[in-house]
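--- STAGE predict ---
source: upstream dedup step, 1 unique chain passed
mode: sequence only
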Amino acid sequence: MRSGLFRVMAKPARARIYRGTPRNLARLARALQQGDLVAVPTETVYGLAANALNPRACRAIFRAKGRPSSDPLIVHIHDLAQLDAIAETNREALTLAKCFWPGPLTIVLPKRGIVPDIVSAGLPSVAVRMPAHPLFRRLLKQTNLPLAAPSANPFGYVSPTTAEHVRDGLGSKIGHILDGGPSTIGVESTIIDLRDPRSPRLLRPGAITQAEIERVLGRPVKLRRRLSSKKAQVAPGLMARHYSPRTPAVLHTKLPSPAAALARADEAWIYFARPAARSQNAKNIFWLHHDGELQGAARNLFAVLRRVDRQGYRCIHLERAPGRGLADAINDRLQRAAAR
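--- STAGE serialize ---
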């Protein structure tokens, strides 16, 4: 047999994870300026960033994620001067920006011509936010560009909240991941539609609540119901099924007693708070936070879903979070995770 007749296929290169050193930030800033993709930490979830003004770079985001072009990208900025360059602002938007930015609030506004259509799903609007994560802010400042950055995961799958989550999902499709530690909030940003400032609409709940926005604006904020997945979306994260594990999931207002869950060992049960002590060592029982604290549950939500999804259960049972405010954001993600 002649040598070379059979070739060993090389494994795809794995993305490199970078610590947030000055040298690494300079290197990643250059990569973004040159049109490359870089996964970045934010306080909400990890994002997959590209130069928002470069259509080719933004199309690479859609290819890496397997994301439909009907789902737009959020543009991240470092300061308010960048907002005026990419969007038509209004008094209400500036009021919210001055109150909640940097932070987990995305504002949808009419876009300026500088924003490529690939970023906005062809619509005349753009979703913008100013993130609070200090490492991402340093990268934004050094890059001196607005950066489009949806969640850094295969489209529709559970969002990533650590650098390792990103590498697990996209490690063979991107080259660079900036490690900023676990996301401190753990659910995606609140999205408010202010294209018509007289009629603000909450598109996606997040850590900044409807009540907080209403208090700042001094007027009611309407809720926008889910849109058709076949049409261009005005903002990301609005499809009925999203943030979903591969294992089928069912959402419950309240899960049964741990004893009943233990009897169905081929199914996973994720309680909102830690159940009775006698069930804590059961392999198929999990919880979002040991004390049922909302901030902790939100921070743990996607990590728990990912861990359970890898374990081969037939089904995952999910328990709704009690109350309102941040509970609305948690329940929104759980409902989409369980949608069919």
